[in-house]
Structure formats: C-alpha cells, structure tokens
C-alpha cells in the first residue's frame, strides 16, 4: 500500500510487526505479546495523527491511489447496473460513468467521475478529468432520470475538468454550465456524494444536489491547492498554505453550510477499509433519499435552487 509522508512513523512500526510475523513463521518463536504491543502502538499513533490532520494532509488522503473510486461504489451498492454512454453529439467520455440500476431495490440513476485504479484504467478514464462530452452525457442522463421519475445519485471525484485545447474548442465552459443547470432543473431527488477530490467546476457540475454528502477525509474546493499556489504565490511550493486558505476540508465546508453531512471513514482513511467506507456511504445515501422521497418535483427543484442561492447570500454578507 502507498504510504503517505506523514504516515512514515506508523509504516516503520508496521514493518517491524511484519518482520516479527515472519520470524514466527520461520523460527517458531512465540513473540505474540510483542506484536500485540506494537499493534496497539500503531493504532494509538494512527488515531492521534488522523484526529488532527492538516488540510494539506487531508488532500493527500483524498488523492490516495488506493482510495475506492466511483466504479467501486457502483459495484458495491448498485444492483443490475446498466451503463449508458455518449452525449448524442460528439462521443463517449470515460471520465464520467453513468447508468441505471437498483439501489436497495429501487431504481436510481448513478453518475460519477471515474479516475481509474491502475495506469491503463487511469489513461482510459483520463484521470477523472472530463471533456465537454462527459458533462453533456451527465446532463442527458439527469434529464432522462427526471423524465422517468428516477432519483439521481452523483459520485464526485475529480481534480477538475480537462483543461486541454480540444476540450475548450468543443465548449468546455458551456458544457459544465449546462450540467449545473440540469442539476438545478431536475424534478427528482438528487443526492451528491464527494468521495475523494472535488475540484473546481468539474466537480460542481455533478454536485448541485438537494443533499450534498462528503466523506470525512475528502476535499472540495474552487481550485486545487497547487493551482491556487501558482496563481497567488507563483509557486507550487505554497500548496500547503493554499490548502489552509481554501477551507477545503469536510469539517470546514460543513461549518460553512456548503455540504450537509460528513460520512466517517475508517481509521487511516477510506483506502484502509473500502468495504466499510462504502457501507457507510450507502447508508447515508439511503437516508438522504428517504428524507427526499414523497416531495413533489417542483418542491425539490425550488429547495435545491434556494439552497445554493443561500450559499451566495452567506458569502456576500
């Protein structure tokens, strides 16, 4: 497993434990008590570190390569998933996955950013950075869900929209704006979950929900810390300071009322126990959908619009 910089003291202890276990296997020496003592120390150290993670450290956890991605959540939570592809205009964008399935027995439309889990899949999915056709596909699927009265669940995990010349030439900004507009207009429950990195307009294009959930160590901001640092400090070396200033942690955003609920992660982050993380996420999504069920489409739409207008009023005042 990939070890983050601030986890190295813990990794050294875990290496000692692993060495002792090999000695037991190879030498038959019973040193279980020593392993137990070291494991308890590992748990204490990890709990102490993760209880006071700085924003830049949370950024590292949110980007951990072993963190579960949208496709993992779909596989774990959605039955009979049928992927739907294409924007009916230009082509298919693998950076955004979406389709129909059943969540706890009820029909649902799921749309998410997919980063990929290894080199080949990351290249295939363009590291989760969508082009205009990806956002137009998301818009198409949301409008389809609204037409058939199917709730929408979005899984947000992207550093941002793809910034390439070809994407800009095909109307990247307009496509993102249309996706945001579709989020605001649908007349069905829309629940958004930020599972990793929520970056810039590429994230909010899928995150304008009636209920916005966020994992404990995920991040969500108008720009990446590196991008902010390059603009304000003219150096990526200031990314740590930028992370502090951006207020991008789940705890900051809950206090600012940008999100509605934080979903706890296993000790050490979602990558330490993906199954537990996805179960907790599923329970939170179920609760959110249940709270929204029975509301008339116009009410859902009006509440969603007012929710985001109120954020603007709060910032201005």
What's a concise summary of this model?
The protein is α/β, with parallel strands linked by helices. The protein folds into two domains: 48 residues; 258 residues, Alpha-Beta Complex (2-enoyl-CoA Hydratase, Chain A, domain 1). The chain has 14 helices and eight strands.
What characteristics describe this protein?
317 residues, alpha/beta, 2-enoyl-CoA Hydratase, Chain A, domain 1, eight-stranded mixed β-sheet, 14 helices
Q: What is the averaged pLDDT score?
A: 91
Range of strand content: 15-25%
Q: What's the CATH topology name of the largest domain? A: 2-enoyl-CoA Hydratase, Chain A, domain 1
Unreliable runs, pLDDT <50, ≥5 residues?
A: none
Oligomer: single chain
Q: Helix/strand-derived class? A: alpha/beta
List the helices and strands and how they pair.
Layout lengths: L7 H20 L4 H19 L4 H8 L7 H8 L1 E5 L12 E8 L2 E8 L5 H6 L7 H17 L3 E7 L6 H5 L2 H14 L4 E10 H8 L3 E5 L3 E3 L3 H8 L6 H8 L3 H6 L5 E3 L10 H19 L4 H20 L1
Parallel strand pairs: 3-4, 4-5, 5-6, 5-7, 6-8
Antiparallel strand pairs: 1-2, 2-3
Description:
- By secondary structure, this protein is α/β, with parallel strands linked by helices.
- It has two domains: 5-52; 59-316, 2-enoyl-CoA Hydratase, Chain A, domain 1 (Alpha-Beta Complex).
- The chain has 14 helices and eight strands.
- Strands 1, 2, 3, 4, 5, 6, 7 and 8 form an eight-stranded mixed beta sheet that branches.
């Amino acid at each position: 497993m990939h070890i983050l910089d601030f986890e190295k003291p813990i990794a050294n202890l875990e290496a000692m434990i692993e060495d002792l276990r090999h000695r037991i296997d190879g030498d038959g020496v019973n040193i279980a008590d020593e392993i137990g003592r070291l494991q308890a120390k590992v748990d204490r150290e990890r709990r102490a570190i993760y209880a006071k993670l700085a924003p830049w450290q949370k950024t590292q956890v949110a980007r951990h390569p072993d963190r579960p991605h949208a496709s993992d959540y779909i596989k774990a939570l959605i039955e009979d998933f049928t992927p739907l592809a294409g924007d009916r205009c230009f082509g298919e964008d693998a950076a955004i996955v979406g389709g129909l399935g059943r969540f706890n027995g009820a029909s649902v439309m799921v749309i998410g950013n997919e980063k990929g889990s290894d080199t080949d899949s990351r290249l295939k999915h363009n590291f989760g950075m969508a082009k205009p056709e990806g956002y137009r596909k998301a818009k198409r699927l949301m409008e389809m869900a609204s037409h058939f009265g199917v709730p929408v669940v979005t899984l947000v995990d992207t550093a941002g929209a793809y910034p390439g010349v070809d994407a800009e030439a095909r109307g990247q900004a307009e496509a993102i704006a249309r996706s945001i507009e579709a989020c605001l207009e649908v007349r069905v429950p829309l629940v958004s979950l930020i599972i990793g990195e929520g970056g810039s307009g590429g994230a909010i294009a899928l995150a304008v929900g009636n209920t916005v959930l966020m994992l404990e160590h995920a991040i969500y901001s108008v720009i990446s810390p590196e991008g902010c640092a390059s603009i304000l400090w003219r150096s990526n070396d200031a990314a740590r300071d930028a992370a502090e200033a951006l207020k991008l942690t789940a705890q900051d955003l809950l206090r600012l009322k940008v999100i509605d609920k934080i979903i706890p992660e296993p000790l050490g982050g979602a990558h330490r126990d993906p199954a537990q993380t996805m179960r907790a996420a599923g329970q939170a999504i179920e609760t959110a959908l249940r709270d929204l069920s029975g509301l008339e489409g116009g009410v859902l739409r009006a509440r969603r619009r007012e929710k985001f207008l109120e954020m603007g009023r709060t910032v201005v005042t």
